[in-house]
Here is the input.
Amino acid sequence: MRITRKAAFAAVAATSVFALAACSSGGGGSDEETDDAGINTDTSITIAWNQPFYSANGTSITGNATANNIITYMLNSEFNYYDPELNVVQNESFGTYEKISDDPLQVKYTYADTAKWSDGTPAGPADLLLEWAAQSGKFNNVEAEYDDEGNITNQDALDAGVYFDAADPSVALIEETPEIDGKSITMTYTKPFADWETAIDQNLPAHIVAQRALGIEDAEEATDALVAAIQDNTVEDLSKIAKVWSTDWNYASMPSDEDLLVTSGAYNITEFEQDQFITLTANENFEGDNKAVFNKVTVRWNGDPMGQAQALQNGEVDLINPQATADFKTAVEAMDGIEVASGPEGTYEHVDLQFTNGGPFDPATYGGDAEKAKKVRQAFLKTIPREQIIENLIKPLDPEAEIRNSYTQVPGSPMYDAIVEANGQAETYATDIPGATALLAEAGVPAVSVRLLFDPANTRRQNEYELIKASAAQAGFDVQPYQVQTDWGTDLSNATSFYDAALFGWQSTSTAVTASDATYRTAATNNYYGYSNPEVDALFDELQTATEPDDQERILTEIETKIVDDAFSVTIFQFPGVTAWNPEKIGNVSKLTIAPTIFYGFWEWTAGDAAAE
Here is the structure.
């Protein structure tokens, strides 16, 4: 699939307030109520997370964030999921898939009779066809253009054209329109693809998208019209469909239209207060295998780890996994009756730079002088105090922590050491204030202002910002925090003209070898910065068909070397994880190192001792 923009991305204020109004976990007595679906309606759980949900379309460029996808993981079913050993497991109660041909590569998906949307409409091939149309890029014929203030300047062209807010290089390999046959749909790839099993999956309800876009009331008729629009490339209809798909499921509080709350999984959204909490209630009509254990799951938001710890101790939340600090770890380990688990996570911290926003790292700022802009980028990256960040903020949690020096590999993975030895990042971007100062002098720009985007509600990232600001100032950089206009995750993709560098974390959502394609390829889903290198794109093309580990390692090494040479990004550290929970309220917590982390296996949770009394 792809690497996801991390919901736990971290940054600012240790003084953030945790809104806890009347939403503690419920416990059941011996007279527990059970509805006809076998759901214990007395059970509930409250979980803390550090960034609010803001989009139910997690495969769009705007909505592709862990903050969103941990919620949609409980709302919607897919064809597969990962088990605790990170093996891909088919969700046969939703559907099955099989590779039916190697040359050409063809994959057939078949929906089960139990695959249904919560409004009673069967899930089916049209849903997957819509996702292909959105992610393949085949139908897009216009892109948004912005002025210096971030306002769209070509709205008429957007309204007349087709623009799906998505771009997935793996789905783009399916150039032919997929063929529908009853409950099945077959995808044909233009070439072999190593990660075909995780390339595409279910997302939004096609019938709702079509009803909203085409003004057709009947669900079956609307679905048929959507399929016809895609098969016939009807621009007028596709324009409307693309706009609805891209925008209508972006909401940060309870939408007034219940159609936007239709799901295919174990839960439905029943309450949603902006910047406070979201409550999911078990879907009584769900027929799949992975059913809800708790009738209600409430997720409350707070970026302050100590605020989460206090809420856990007070019984206001029952499960937490913040971006931990040493104080946080000490606090939860001292709590009576609280279970604590530590270990590395599948997320890494990094800084990316803007290439096309008219800022200090953009060649256009220097009359198109690419070398001058590159020297400024190199200088800034040399000021990132990676070792100091780890010493001050990470080693108190993990004494063995080291700088991560790979863009694509997790420390300890088979390819990591060889790629790090060859890519040059450790040497090129070791903290070097004299070297940075010299580069700025060579570029003729001794003083540079940099607007840094990071989550303004995350303690650890605020601390990182302060260290970066102080270090960069020694070389002539004035680093100021970008003032978030909406949600910082939304601004990451939509306000690219207004920040020059971004500090956050990428979290893996799959084990696919091509996962980094969506981050470093030109104009791909996670590439918000205008970074483009045709040689990198060509190497990713080669990687897509590479099945031998030696070939994959060689290609990834070349890719990483070019990223270093282009001065696009630096990696900093692998996240140390600390999870804490109240066993009287929840049991069988099993966290994955990739998304959805602590939300994994919600169908295997158990109501704790207090709920069973």
Q: What stands out?
A: Residues 549-566 form the longest helix (18 residues). The two ends are 42 Å apart (CA to CA).
